[in-house]
Design brief:
By secondary structure, this protein is α/β, with parallel strands linked by helices. Helices cover 43% and strands 17% of the residues. Strands 18-19-17-16-20-23-24 form a seven-stranded mixed beta sheet. A five-stranded mixed beta barrel has the order 1-3-4-5-6. A five-stranded parallel beta sheet has the order 8-9-12-7-13, sandwiched between helices. It is elongated, with a radius of gyration of 53 Å. 33% of the residues are buried.
Length: 814
């Protein structure tokens, strides 16, 4: 394959002027205008114009070199014709050249005016028998270039038409290379390849590489365009919505959301750490698309941060007289709680900065624990916040969720502080003993930080991620029992609120409940009167509780029926409810007021029990049946109570001679102990002396006094140990018309907490040994087996039994 050229007549080595080119490679048959401004280049053009208008165009290796040397120029260039030359006013020259043939530069000669090169023509190399392969390469090249032109918008479509008419493979390759966007070294490489097949393959590879890049660029442009279109569309719609709302008058003078948040951050009074966090998040928000999901999360977070009351607080009232008046007006009795609040206010006057006390009010339902929290808030002029912890299992309820979760929020503590808008409210944790735990965490452990005065000044909520000072908050917790984790209990000051006495209930009903229910039911003062005796009968025969909740319910029931009566048949006179008329409004009596058993019984003892609703009378029954010495216990008794029965049995067996009981009874008889009511679970050690007394009564056939109740734990030596809940138990004895109560000697000190009017109606007998209990509880004392004498020959009296026990105690002590 032979390429036609106009320079076939040139000798093998000729001298020609050289024009160095920046960033451009000229191929044969390529027509291109050049702007020449360098002095040497203009001289080279002048020299060519003076001779045969032929010049060698060669690319320089570095475009940044302004005055290139011989080493800065490539060795392969293009011999070209000067078609037109035009000198411009600024001294530069515009020249139109046409490439003719590749040349090899053997040697450069640098003169003062320009470069002169010793050149020889390069003929294309093509092997015989390659026509089919070359044809296939040409077709592939045309197809690939067609794809390239479609992707590259810089090349006009007419180029495809022009190159399709080129039959010469070498010229086709050069024309395609001239139109492609390639690097200088890649263009020069194609110029230097003489072998046609190699040149076509190299060009094909370069085109395919460029196509891959163009496809990637196209995908990127497509993605960017879609995102831009979406953002622009959202922005356009938002602006349109704002314009519509402004026309409707909804957004007049409304500041920008970002500006509004920035102003709120400045006014919030945050500490440095929180303010820095808020500013950081606000800066993030500015950079985000307003409609993105992340922007909503950040916006909500900043909104919570500025909504927390960092500095706003209410002024605490320090007037003790006024505070005492509020507490007395709202609640009857409860002297210990009132005294503690007044002490706090008194110290606050002196110390100014005092950490809020953390109180835990423990008592049965209905005694006014929650309402007392409201009264304390009123007395101290704090805002009141109540949080019920009953059934709370999730630690996040206290500390909040981390922001990584969808729909996350701060914990209830921060939420409630935002709600009341002050940092020093009274926070009531209601039913703190009803919390539980599961796989989501332990909320009681989360409360350890909240209720610790040494730690809660840096309380950290998972959502907020910054510390908040809770030391100004006054925390009050309520519970029905002390079944609270010990570390949590240790952080609170426990104030017990025992059940009310009959007199206290009567006063509460007369002062508060009747008036409250009359107001709630729309009754005026002159329409209904409930006498004191009627209220007393409601307490005795229609309720059995430590608090006054059911009492209030019964009074509400009377009010409802009276309202209905007045509405159906108006009456002029006041309706007075007396004890004899209670059955008309409340129905038949529900409870018996008096002794559980009116006659002395063998093997039946009245015990005293503590429950969450107050004290209760506990009936303990013992019976003997023929058998093989089995000890049977029924009545849903817990493990501790079952152990008390076994201890009582051991006490009895160790004293069979003194009690006059057959020593072999436990081999011939089965002993059955039952504690009604059978459906109610019972546990605890305080029924020990009751169990022992019932066993001795049934074995000796001596009846137990029906008007005696007892409580106390028993040891194997027969000693009576102290118990808890004495006040509730004595109140239960008083409610049941018990006249004599046996208690442990060590509980004598607790009698100071019992109201004087209750002690006046009860004969309380402190005891240390079981023998003293038997002396009080049994109708007659058991007679010893051995002619009524002891081992020392003295008469077997109760006093000698106590002496024997004390002596035995001394021996064991040594």
């Amino acid at each position: 394959m032979k390429q036609n050229t106009t320079f076939d007549h040139l000798p093998s080595h000729v001298l020609m002027p050289v024009l160095p080119l920046r960033d451009v490679v000229i191929y044969p048959h390529m027509v291109i205008p050049l702007f020449v401004g360098r002095e040497k280049s203009i001289h080279a053009l002048d020299l060519a114009m003076q001779s045969n208008k032929r010049i060698v165009l060669v690319a320089q290796r570095g475009a940044e070199v302004d005055d290139p040397g011989i080493d800065d120029l490539y060795d392969i260039g293009t011999l070209s014709n000067i078609l037109q030359l035009l000198r411009l006013p600024d001294g530069t020259v515009k020249v139109l050249v046409e490439g003719s043939q590749r040349v090899c530069i053997h040697r450069f000669t640098e003169t003062q005016s320009c470069f002169i090169a010793n050149i020889s023509l390069l003929e294309p190399i093509s092997e015989e028998g390659e026509s089919q392969e070359a044809q296939a390469l040409v077709r592939s090249l045309l197809g690939t270039f067609d794809q390239y032109v479609k992707l590259n918008k810089k090349i006009p479509g007419e180029v495809l038409t022009s190159i399709s008419g080129i039959d010469d493979p070498g010229r086709l390759a050069d024309t395609i290379a001239a139109h492609m966007t390639l690097k200088l070294d890649e263009k020069q490489k194609i110029l230097e390849i003489q072998d046609l097949r190699e040149r076509l393959e190299c060009l094909l590879a370069l085109i395919e590489g460029e196509i891959d890049i163009l496809q990637v660029e196209k995908r990127i442009r497509s993605r960017v365009k879609q995102q831009m279109e979406k953002t622009q569309r959202e922005y356009y719609l938002n602006e349109q919505m704002k314009a519509i709302q402004k026309e409707l008058g909804d957004l007049e003078d409304v500041p920008n959301e970002i500006e509004d948040l920035a102003q709120r951050i400045e006014k919030a009074g945050m500490p440095k750490e929180a303010k820095a966090k808020a500013q950081t998040e606000l800066n993030k928000l500015k950079m985000m698309s307003p409609m993105s999901a992340e922007a909503t999360v950040v916006r909500n977070y900043v909104d919570w941060l500025v909504s927390v009351p960092w500095k706003k607080r209410t002024k605490i009232h320090q007037n003790l007289v006024a505070a005492e008046g509020i507490l007395e007006a709202d609640h009857y009795d409860l002297e210990k709680v009132k005294e503690r609040i007044l002490e706090y206010l008194a110290v606050q006057q002196r110390a100014r900065k005092l950490k809020g006390p953390i109180l835990c009010l423990v008592g049965p339902p209905g005694v006014g624990k929650t309402s007392l929290g409201r009264s304390i808030a009123r007395a101290t002029n704090r805002k009141f916040v109540r949080m019920s912890l009953g059934g709370v299992r999730d630690e996040a309820e206290i500390r909040g969720h981390r922001r990584t979760y969808i729909g996350s929020l701060p914990g209830k503590i921060i939420q409630n502080l935002v709600k009341v808008e002050v940092r020093n409210p009274l926070f009531l944790f209601d039913e703190i003993d009803k919390m539980s735990m599961d796989f989501r965490g332990d909320p009681s452990s989360a409360l350890l930080e909240v209720l610790d005065p040494e730690q809660n000044n840096t309380f950290s909520d998972h959502y907020m991620e910054v510390d908040f000072d809770l030391s100004d908050v006054m925390f009050v917790a309520t519970a029905n029992s002390l079944s609270i984790p010990p570390p949590l209990l240790d952080r609170m000051e426990v104030i017990r609120i025992p059940g009310y006495t009959e007199d206290e209930k009567l006063n509460i009903a007369s002062r508060y409940l009747v008036a409250k229910q009359m107001t709630n039911h729309g009754l005026k003062k002159g329409e209904l009167e409930i006498t004191g005796d009627a209220v007393l009968d409601i307490i005795r025969f229609y309720t059995r509780e430590a608090g006054v909740r059911n009492l209030e319910r019964e009074i509400a029931k009377i009010c409802r029926k009276v309202v209905k009566e007045i509405t159906l048949k108006p009456v002029e006179n006041i309706i007075t409810v007396t004890p004899s008329g209670l059955e008309k409004y409340l129905g038949v009596r529900r409870f018996r007021y008096g002794l559980a058993e009116e006659q002395d019984q063998i093997g039946q003892v009245t015990g005293l029990a503590w429950t969450e609703v107050g004290g209760e009378l506990l009936s303990i029954e013992a019976a003997l049946v023929p058998g093989k010495g089995k000890l049977i216990h029924t009545g849903q008794l817990g493990e501790v109570m079952q152990e008390s029965i076994q201890a009582a049995m051991t006490v009895v067996r160790s004293r069979v001679e003194a009690l006059g009981v057959d020593p072999e009874f436990y081999q011939k008889l089965d002993v059955h102990i039952h504690v009604p009511e059978g459906a109610t679970p019972k546990d605890g050690p305080s029924a020990g002396i009751g169990m022992c007394t019932a066993l001795i009564s049934v074995l000796t056939r001596i009846p137990v006094h029906a008007n005696v109740a007892m409580t106390g734990e028993i040891t194997l030596r027969g000693e009576v140990l102290p118990i808890g809940g004495l006040k509730e138990k004595l109140l239960a004895a008083h409610r049941g018309s018990i006249s004599t109560v046996v208690i442990p000697e060590e509980n004598r000190k607790d009698l100071t907490e019992i109201p004087a009017n209750i002690l006046a109606k009860l004969d309380v007998r402190p005891v240390r040994w079981i023998d003293q209990v038997l002396e009080i509880a049994l109708q007659t004392l058991p007679q010893p087996c051995s002619q009524g004498t002891t081992e020392s020959g003295e008469p077997a009296t109760p006093e000698s039994a106590v002496k024997t026990s004390n002596a035995l105690e001394g021996v064991r002590a040594h």
